[in-house]
Design goal:
Elements: E1 4-5, E2 8-9, H1 12-15, H2 19-36, H3 40-53, E3 54-57, E4 60-63, H4 72-76, H5 78-83, H6 99-108, H7 119-130
Antiparallel strand pairs: 1-2, 3-4
Length: 131
């Protein structure tokens, strides 16, 4: 975490992101901290809210073309998500992109072996490369 904005400490990736992404994260984090207290659960809640409308691209977050869950974990939500955690793909919108779109991003990032990867593997490798 680095500097405080909108009353919360923003991660570096959000500092380089649009103001709407910053406000979404900050507002959700404040509300989640009131409900759950400070800590991991509040942070996860804020990140899940952010990922509904934004996708991590490189070192920042960009608005998604269509709002909605990015991955199977976000699609589950609630007790189902808590009791049966699934892979989150590091902010890559695996559900909102086609394999071809993810392949093109992987190509731009220089990911080797991409032609043999399925959609999930491409998203996983993109997330690793973006750090």
């Amino acid at each position: 975490m680095s500097k405080q904005k909108y009353g919360v400490e923003l991660p570096g990736t959000l500092e380089r992101s649009p103001a709407k992404a910053q406000r979404t994260y900050a507002k959700t984090l404040r509300n989640a901290e009131r409900e759950y207290g400070r800590g991991e659960r509040a942070s996860r809640t804020a990140l899940a809210s952010l990922k509904h409308g934004f996708e991590k691209v490189g070192n920042h977050w960009e608005p998604k073309d269509h709002k909605g869950p990015s991955d199977p974990q976000a699609a589950a939500g609630g007790a189902e998500a808590r009791n049966h955690p699934r892979e989150t793909f590091g902010g890559v919108d695996v559900m909102g992109h086609t394999r071809q779109e993810l392949y093109a991003r992987a190509k731009d990032l220089g990911i080797a072996g991409r032609s043999r990867m399925n959609k999930e593997a491409l998203a996983r490798e993109i997330a690793k490369k973006q750090g």
